[in-house]
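Q: Given only this backbone (168 positions), what sequence would you predict?
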């Protein structure tokens, strides 16, 4: 027996850009899963990454060059950095080194059209934590991002422990 689907007449006229699904944090009133810094000189890639991260319920900020991204990174707090490799000015590997010098616990994922094997040595030295090859599959991207953030050391914000309040 095949399932039957009712056709909603209002959906025929619905344009793709008219439907913006709510984020789980908006629906449930919770917080975002984390903050992600995205760096890519291609506008279409930046837009795609921002959209995917938004659907995954992450707060994401994007820049088209490493210099601005690094300046913003130094002013804020990020749980993850996604960077392209080849960009005008400072490339993604140089940005990754600067990020790791300032915040060694922040995972850096290189998103590149180059062969992943070329970066295995860089991963061993700790400059980058993972590589996502373009074009990528959505499920692989999501798994990599979630895995990086799951394994990141968490700093607990527990005022009772900070103030020494023993009213637990």
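A: Predicted residues:
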């Amino acid at each position: 027996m095949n399932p039957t689907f009712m056709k909603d007449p209002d959906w025929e006229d619905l344009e793709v850009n008219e439907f913006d699904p709510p984020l789980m944090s908006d629906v449930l009133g919770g917080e975002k899963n984390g903050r992600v810094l995205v760096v890519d000189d291609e506008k279409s890639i930046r837009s795609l990454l921002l959209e995917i991260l938004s659907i995954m319920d992450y707060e994401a900020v994007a820049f088209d060059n490493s210099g601005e991204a690094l300046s913003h990174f130094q002013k804020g707090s990020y749980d993850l950095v996604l960077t392209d490799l080849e960009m005008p000015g400072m490339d993604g590997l140089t940005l990754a080194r600067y990020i790791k010098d300032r915040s060694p616990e922040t995972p850096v994922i290189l998103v590149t059209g180059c062969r992943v094997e070329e970066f295995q040595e860089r991963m061993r030295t700790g400059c980058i934590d993972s590589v996502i090859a373009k074009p990528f599959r959505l499920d692989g991207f999501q798994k990599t991002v979630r895995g990086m953030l799951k394994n990141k050391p968490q700093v607990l914000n527990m005022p009772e422990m900070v103030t020494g309040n023993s009213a637990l």
